[in-house]
From TrEMBL:
Primary subcellular site in the record, as a coarse category: cytoplasm
Family: Belongs to the N-acetylmuramoyl-L-alanine amidase 2 family.
Name recorded for this polypeptide: 1,6-anhydro-N-acetylmuramyl-L-alanine amidase AmpD
The keyword Cell membrane is annotated on this UniProt entry: no
Source taxonomy: Bacteria, Pseudomonadati, Pseudomonadota, Alphaproteobacteria, Rhodobacterales
One Pfam family matching this protein: Amidase_2
Every SH3b domain range: 217-286
GO molecular function, one term: N-acetylmuramoyl-L-alanine amidase activity
Cofactors, names only: Zn(2+)
Record keywords, A-Z: Cell wall biogenesis/degradation, Cytoplasm, Hydrolase, Metal-binding, Zinc
EC number of this enzyme: 3.5.1.28
Top-level EC class as recorded in UniProt: hydrolase
Amino acid sequence: MKLKNHRIEGIPFLPARLTGGTITPEIVILHDTAGRLDKFNSRDYLARTTKASVHFVIERDGTVSQLVPTNRRAGHAGQSSYHGRPDCNAFSIGIEIVNPGRMTRGAGGSVLAWWGQDFGPGGQIGGYGLADLETPEHGRGTWMAYAPEQIEAVEALLLALFATIPSLRDITTHWYVSPGRKVDVNPLFPLEAIRARVLGRDDPALQAANAGSTPEAPGAFVQVEAAAGLNLRSWPSFNPNVITSIPGGTRLPVNRQGSFSGRQWLNVTYSGRDGWIVAAYTQPIPPSA
């Protein structure tokens, strides 16, 4: 992606009706649309309404649309404050990520969005990854994982913005600037990993993985037992961080091992990349084999 004249080249631009005066953006605020997942549903609403607006919208498949130039005010943060400075709309770029937001569990294992759509037990209706989590910032809820394509698009967009807008200095969230009023982005979003990659800082997720694991003895190998393949992940977590899929039967050298969130994980090397896999889907290979 490339930013030119305050617009990202090569993506759709739908001018929002609610577009304000000139701003100098200093932060980027990430949001959930908290609406239906149909492609362009939230984007088209935000383009035509006079109640809210945002600079960018990212669909489930990673498609990015722009609604407001990056040097113009959009109505995305509402009542907000960043490190004591009020009215974040006056100095921020807003990015909306298509996601239903907090959901609730109903009778029979149903998972209900606020507009009544049922995503079924464990996200089986539609194949979505759901998790029941509670954090001090978000409270308790059932949350939908972001698609890998969305995470990739968020990172690519942020890299383009920070490479071109010298006044930008931080990436934050709606729940951070509006605590107690908003809970987006949801707790499954890999915020610190994204901030680390875009802002050039050490990835805290990888730091935690290294600190919570131990090196394996040289010559340790495992074989993937999952017939359908096994995901190689950037860190030991089920957040959207898949590097690639490893075919069943593949032999892998083991670099580190550790227990995270009650599961045993292995750091392995596959096709020249180091990453993490769930140990339960592998079988140790004896040194003589």
